[in-house]
Amino acid sequence: MPEKDVLYHELLEALQAEGCAICRLARKASDSYVRALIYEGVTDVKLRETLRNARGLCHQHGWRTAGRRGSVLGAAIIYRDVINTLVKTLEGRSGGGPRLFGRGQPELSRALGGSEDCPACALERDAEGRAAKILLNHLGDAEIGATYRASGGLCLPHFQLVLGQGSQSAGNTLAEWQAEGWSRLRDQLDELIRKHDYRFRSEIVTDEEAEAWQRAIAAVTGEAEPAPET
Ligand SMILES: [Zn+2]
Ligand SMILES: [Zn+2]
Q: Does residue 226 fall inside a structural domain?
């Protein structure tokens, strides 16, 4: 299958599940990195160097790694490297350099910080850009249109990303689809709120309405992090 077809089908599949398709594709990219990191990363010298320079993963991806089964040894080795680098940086400054804990140590602070971005975040950004491009290239595709509308659309940050890359007419099409999803969600929130009123307590809250508040948070900020593996 040509690469474009693979990406098209990946997008279609992601749109078929509930929630933002681009969040899902970005998660997939960082998940495979985290998996490789735990199982193979500890022996890969280049990868460990990148992680050392990045001072490990960001908060989100660091804790996602910790939540995976079998992460203990891999995380211990990777973070031993990072902590060792931090110790050496502190020790290096105690020689001829300025006083270690004096007022204001911008140089020391900079030296402690990373020189590279979180590699999992970088992979997510790449995946997001690719997905946005594929979506824009296939806006005329009936299946893409139907699944986008049924899914409720993208989260706000990813919708903005796609708008920023598309033409005005693409933006108009997307805005129409997205407005449908957000209006539906708003109506479900209205019902959820109304049925919380004691006068309407006897009315059944549907499953969709019951989850509307969480889907609203996801719609505005992006999909939630998965629960840790047990
Ligand atoms: Zn998203
Ligand atoms: Zn990250």
A: no
> How far does the chain reach from its first CA to its final CA, in angstroms?
36
Q: How far is the CA of 133 from the centre of ligand 1 (A)?
A: 14
| Ligand 1 centroid to residue 176 C-alpha, Å | 18
**Residue 12 domain flag:** yes
Is position 227 within any domain? no
pLDDT at residue 97, as a whole number: 52
Q: Distance, CA 154 to ligand 1 centroid (Å)?
A: 5
What total of structural domains would you count in the chain?
Answer: 1
The rounded average pLDDT for each run of 10 residues, N- to C-terminus, in the chain (230 residues) is 78 94 96 89 84 95 92 91 94 62 75 93 97 96 96 97 97 97 96 85 83 95 85
Instruction: Determine if the pTM surpasses 0.85.
Output: yes
Between the CA of 119 and the centroid of ligand 2 the distance, in Å, is: 6
**Is 160 a member of any domain?**
yes
- Write phi, then psi, for 204 (nearest 5 degrees): -75, 130
Ligand sitting nearest the alpha carbon of 116: 2
Concatenate the DSSP letters of all residues of 118-155 into one string.
-HHHHHHHHHHHHHHHHHHHTTT-HHHHHHHHHHT---
Which ligand neighbours the alpha carbon of 30 most closely? 2
Q: For residue 24, what are the domain limits?
A: 3-221
